[in-house]
Amino acid sequence: MLIYLRVLKESLLFAVNALTNNKLRTFLSLLGVTIGIFSIIAILAAVDSLEKEIKGSLSSLDTNTIIIMRFSFAPTDIPQWKREQFPDVSYEEFQHLKKTLPNTTAATYKLNVASESINYGGKQVESVGIAAVTSDYYFIEALQLEEGRFFNEAESNSGAPVVVLGNEVAENLFGNPNSAVGQQVRLYGRKFSVIGVLEKEGTSMFGPSKDGTAFLPVNITRRIYGDNNKSTFPQIILKPEADVDDAAYIAQTEQNLRLFRGLKPDQVSNFFINQLKGFTDFIDNITGQMNLFGLIISGFSLLVGGFGIANIMFVSVKERTNLIGIQKSLGAKNRFILLQFLFEAIILSIIGGLIGIFLVWLIAIIASNFTGDFEFVLSFTNVMIGITVSGMIGLISGIIPAVSASKLDPVEAIRTGM
């Protein structure tokens, strides 16, 4: 065992010495692997960061949550001309489902309306996102309040002039979000009492941040916009109980709404039941395809780097043919010569890979500082992938030159080098 360790140590020292004695050649060989590993790890890190940000934005929602509307999250076989004729879900349909649908933890009706300006004491905050919802939205989104409360069912049903402000809106209007509750702001030309302020959320890649949103009872917004306004884009959002079978719950929901709309058995459902679980699966599928596509492109860069190492190793064998002959004539075994060149190729490749990983890490830090709350992540898994791939490239690229070097005849090798 000690003999093998000594052979490994001497082979490693020979490899390191060869690399340091040919600095320019070593640098050029490193360049190809560095670019290849940099490309692969940069793509993996970018896709991981994007996926983490999107899923983080959705983390407050239960993936079993169901959204009913006239649009589909996923591709559908129903032609576009037919989908365009689908009616919007109504408030009456929401009330019907809420009363008749069993195993439902929370249900809300939401109108997506245009942004508005909010005024208070001469101050104005523009482009505030308006979320017109019923009271159960608080439980579905798992909202966190810094001050005050969310509006209750009675206020929601009556359309009371109350509002819950996002943290940033409250700060811009009142300076201190904690002093917002109890004040009155002006919106839609009317006065609204501030009854709550949400905790600060930060920026979000998936939809607008709640920091810049105002939450109103849906019925006061319905009175302003009317029920037949196509720009309001209404939704019914349902949160089933945790232990409910998803397929059975969705089937029951579809049946209840079909009966309410009076659809015949041979008629297609003129609405879509979307589940967030399907949307997250869709995100996983897209990020997987992005990873695969990026790896294929980066693979070509890495292939060029591998060819570069193989070429340099063949040149190295050619230059050191005389030395190989001398080593073998003094008793060096074939495995010693093979390990010597194999280590040289692997070390060269791993150093190139480490440089590529370091560049990705450096760029990730710089990019994270410039993009605010969006964080580029270089995971330990991706680092290990980079090191492993670079080591494999060195092994594959160096094996043929190393084998050819180990099989040289010592007499012919010495004669060739003279």
Draw up the topology in text.
Layout: H1 2-21, H2 23-58, E1 66-69, H3 80-83, H4 91-100, E2 104-112, E3 116-120, E4 123-133, H5 137-140, E5 145-148, H6 153-158, E6 162-165, H7 167-174, E7 184-187, E8 190-198, E9 213-217, H8 218-225, E10 234-240, H9 246-261, E11 272-275, H10 276-319, H11 321-329, H12 334-370, H13 380-406, H14 410-417
Helix pairs in contact: 1-12, 2-10, 2-12, 2-13, 4-9, 10-12, 10-13, 11-14, 12-13
List keywords for this structure.
single chain; 418 residues; alpha+beta; 2 domains; 11-stranded mixed sheet; 14 helices; 11 strands; elongated
Provide an overview of this structure.
This protein has helices spanning 2-21, 23-58, 80-83, 91-100, 137-140, 153-158, 167-174, 218-225, 246-261, 276-319, 321-329, 334-370, 380-406, 410-417; strands spanning 66-69, 104-112, 116-120, 123-133, 145-148, 162-165, 184-187, 190-198, 213-217, 234-240, 272-275. The protein has 418 residues and is α+β, with helices and mostly antiparallel strands. It folds into two domains: 2-57 and 281-417, no CATH class; 87-270, no CATH class. Strands 1, 2, 3, 4, 5, 6, 7, 8, 9, 10 and 11 form an eleven-stranded mixed sheet that branches. A hairpin with a 2-residue loop joins strand 7 (184-187) and strand 8 (190-198). The longest helix has 44 residues, at 276-319.
